């Protein structure tokens, strides 16, 4: 079944020896010929409709299929705005005419927000990416989800590293780019990571590894090793020569992963080491693990 705000599209499997199909639409029986699809058009948004089908053959008609009831979509919330601080992230959106409530997906968890047009996510961990999307609802219908939005609650003063998803996908076997980001760092010269992924749930493209730390600089290098049995990725990115390290907020590394199914899978940070241009370790807490998700629109 495919839905829009004013159309419902149905399909069913063909039956051997059928000479036609009947479909009952809101109580009215229609001859659908040999078509195994039906489009119900010019409907009101958020309206509920019922359907069942039966087969015709040389001996007569089959029994009716089970009755299904389906509602068209209602409009999707618009004008999502997000504000972020160390301690919370606040999300707002416009009212949807006719909606009786809203749901917000917060890092993969769906929260019933009642009729409120605002949600505040209180946070306990700094330097972590969070994602959100919203849909409207009535007693019988939903809208599509809004496009996901994400923010990082960077510390205002402390150094931090964050694994961040750069794009979201609505079906498996599409690339998700993960970017390793830094903030409030002083003199980062070398950084070494060991990441872990589930090889049965996610594929990884070694050709996607991109050094964003010293793009275009000749005095830099990147090396990596992937253990395909354990799903371990070891990467070292460094400047070379008598140069200062990187400062402030910047991207370090880009990698692309491809979920093989709709299950949620984690990218785990096993190790993280940072060295400055004098060869001294910089004490920065390990980045938080990140989850890769497939996010269907409805």
Question: How would you describe the overall organization of this protein?
Answer:
The chain is an all-beta fold and 298 residues long. Helix content is 0%, strand content 51%. It is built from no helices and 24 strands. It has strands at residues 2-3, 8-11, 20-25, 28-31, 37-40, 48-57, 60-61, 68-71, 81-84, 88-92, 101-106, 109-112, 118-122, 129-137, 149-152, 160-165, 176-188, 190-196, 202-211, 220-227, 232-239, 246-259, 265-275, 290-292. Strands 3, 4, 6, 7 and 8 form a 5-stranded antiparallel sheet that branches. A 5-stranded antiparallel sheet has the order 20-21-18-23-24, with no helix packed on it. Strands 12-11-14-15 form a 4-stranded antiparallel sheet, with no helix packed on it.
Find the count of extended strands (DSSP E, 2+ residues): 24
User: Given the helix and strand composition, which structural class is it?
Assistant: mainly beta
Low-confidence stretches: none
Report the total helices.
Answer: 0
Main sheet properties: 5 strands, antiparallel
Outline type: elongated
Mean pLDDT: 96
Q: What is the chains' assembly state? A: single chain
Name the helix and strand elements from N-terminus to C-terminus, one letter apiece. EEEEEEEEEEEEEEEEEEEEEEEE
Helix content: under 10%
Distance between the termini: 12 Å
Rg, please? 26 Å
Strand content: over 45%
């Amino acid at each position: 079944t495919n839905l829009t705000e004013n159309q419902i599209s149905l399909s069913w499997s063909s039956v051997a020896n059928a000479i036609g199909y009947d479909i009952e639409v809101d109580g009215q029986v229609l001859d659908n010929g040999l078509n195994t699809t039906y489009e119900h058009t010019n409907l009101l948004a958020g309206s509920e409709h019922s359907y069942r089908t039966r087969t015709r053959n040389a001996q007569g008609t089959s029994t009716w299929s089970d009755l299904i009831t389906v509602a068209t979509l209602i409009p999707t919330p618009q004008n999502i705005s997000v504000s972020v601080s160390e301690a919370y992230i606040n999300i707002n959106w416009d009212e949807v005419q006719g909606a009786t409530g809203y749901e917000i997906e917060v890092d993969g968890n769906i929260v019933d927000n009642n009729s409120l047009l605002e949600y505040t996510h209180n946070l306990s961990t700094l330097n972590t990416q969070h994602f959100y999307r919203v849909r409207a609802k009535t007693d019988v219908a939903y809208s599509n989800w809004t496009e996901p939005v994400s923010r990082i609650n960077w510390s205002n003063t402390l150094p931090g590293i964050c694994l961040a998803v750069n794009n979201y996908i609505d079906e498996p076997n599409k690339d998700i780019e993960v970017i390793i980001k830094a903030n409030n760092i002083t003199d980062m010269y070398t950084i070494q990571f060991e990441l872990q992924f589930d090889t049965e749930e996610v594929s990884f493209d070694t050709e996607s590894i991109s050094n964003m730390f010293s793009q275009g600089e000749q005095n830099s290098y990147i090396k990596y090793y992937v253990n395909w049995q354990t799903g371990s990725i070891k990467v070292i990115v460094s400047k070379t020569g008598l140069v200062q390290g990187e400062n402030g907020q910047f991207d370090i590394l880009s990698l692309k992963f491809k979920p093989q199914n709709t299950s949620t899978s984690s990218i785990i940070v096993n190790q993280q080491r940072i060295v400055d241009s004098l060869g001294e370790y910089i004490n920065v807490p390990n980045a938080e693990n990140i989850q890769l998700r497939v996010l269907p629109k409805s």
